[in-house]
Amino acid sequence: MRKVTPIGLISLALLNVDAIAAQTLNPITYASGQIAYTNSNIVVDAIKAPAVKGSLLVENGKITQILPPDAQIPAGYQQVDLNNSYVMPGFIDAHIHLAQSASAFTRPDMIGATKIQPYQSDQAWLNQHRQDLLSDYLKVGITAVVDLGGPSGKLQHYADAATLQPSPDIYAAAELISTAAVPELEHEDHTFLAVSSAKEALAAVKMQLGLPIQVVKFVWTDEAGHSPEQLFTIYADAMQHARKAGKIVAVHVEDLAYAKMAIKAHANILVHGVMTAPVDDEFIALAKQHQVVYLPTLTAYNHYRDIFKQQLSFSVLELALTDHAIIESFQQLKLRHADTAPMFQMLTKYLPYVDDTEAKATLKPQEQAIVAQLSQLFSDQIALYQQQNLRHVLEAGVAVAIGTDAGNPGTVHGSAMLGEAQAWLEAGISIQQVIHAMTLGNARAYHIDQSLGSLTSGKDATFSVYDTNPVSDSFATMTPKLVVIRGNIALTNEE
């Protein structure tokens, strides 16, 4: 939830904004009976094969088979003609935070602006608009999300969300287990659960095992002054206990030495990836040996950097889908800069110098020292490391997943995934690999691939329908005209 890498804003010149406005959430129905989606191009596997022409047969919310285009549809099936459209497995965002709104005021520990709007007001807005945020995921074809840490008191709200209106499936963690407390984020409940010993960490895990969670998340950084070895001593037994209980163990890492030790402690997923140095052969060997999933977030870090440089902007799609209150919050942050905390004012003053050697030379020695410190957290080099490391782990055969860290300031719910996908393309990852990560890669990372991630017999009938083939370099400009979750039509485009 802290750092991540560069963003390239998506070019959305071809985006049909009117089509977005025409998208409609449908009343909840419970899929039963037999439906044949005919005259379609089915993307079974974005890496191994092109789209397959034919009919997708669905019975009681499950895929039964794919028939060739000239095959007879069995008796009893209701037929839905897709008019040569493309059927894609529903996308999965492997890293979000539903307890964060994406506004300028949702992380007061990072952006000190409580004089402009209190954190309590942000959380009240979030509680009122949770369903709207969830619908924003459906509008870009995301049918499942993984909430990687927040107050456990909200878990039941997430579980109930789909009973109110169509929603993506939600898999969740509870509080982030950390050696450093974050009191600024305490409102109705804790976001971070601070522990200082192996006994406390194990007790925290045992408590969370009684909650409706699929993931346990640990923060593996030096913010409390612990070395990688000290964190191993505190966390290792708790992590093993969570895994034995059948939970996915996700670990927030940023630095290479900490990442290696987290792997040795049997992490399932490295969240954010290595940001401060190139990964080396030892890291690759450990990751492959322990079958670790590498889950970078290439855009959220840059959003923070753009906020601190007062140059945050949004894509056409983000502007079309995101509540105006979120967009407006950043205007308020700019207009009332004098009301922000001293730390934020220092960041906005000196961050523009970090990658500008000529301008930095004009500063006083004390100011140059400040810029040097900031460069360890915010620089073009960090962005390059994340891109290079993603390419390296992929080429080495390490499993990867893709997520956005949505909810953090400037990383909006739903449409941020298309910006993250575009950033992967700009890092040199193929469109086929990106889509594989958004579907089957993410499903495998969270052990939900028995039901999601690909369109094969026996899996959930959860997919999106597009007018053109998403497996192309312009896929990020597309929005689905139909979204189906377990056979339920969750969203349609009226055009």
Give the topology, please:
Layout: H1 17-21, E1 23-25, E2 34-42, E3 52-59, E4 62-67, E5 78-89, E6 91-96, H2 119-138, E7 142-147, H3 155-161, E8 169-172, E9 176-178, E10 192-194, H4 198-208, E11 215-219, H5 228-244, E12 248-252, H6 256-264, E13 269-272, H7 281-289, E14 293-296, H8 300-308, H9 316-321, H10 324-335, H11 342-350, H12 357-360, H13 365-375, H14 380-395, E15 399-400, H15 416-426, H16 431-445, E16 463-466, E17 482-485, E18 488-493
Parallel strand pairs: 2-5, 6-7, 7-8, 9-10, 11-12, 12-13, 13-14, 14-15
Antiparallel strand pairs: 1-18, 2-3, 3-4, 5-16, 16-17, 17-18
Helix pairs in contact: 4-5, 5-6, 6-7
Say what oligomer this is.
single chain
Taking pLDDT < 50 over at least 5 consecutive residues as the criterion, the unreliable ranges are 1-15
- Strand-pairing-aware structural class: alpha/beta
Query: Roughly what percent helix?
Result: 25-40%
Q: Sheet bearing the most strands, described?
A: 8 strands, mixed
Percent range for β-strand residues: 15-25%
- The CA-CA distance between the termini, in Å, is 38 Å
Counting DSSP E segments of at least 2 residues, the number of strands comes to: 18
Using only C-alpha atoms, the radius of gyration works out to 22 Å
Dominant shape: globular
Query: Number of DSSP helices?
Result: 16
Strand ordering within the main sheet: 1-18-17-16-5-2-3-4
Mean pLDDT: 90
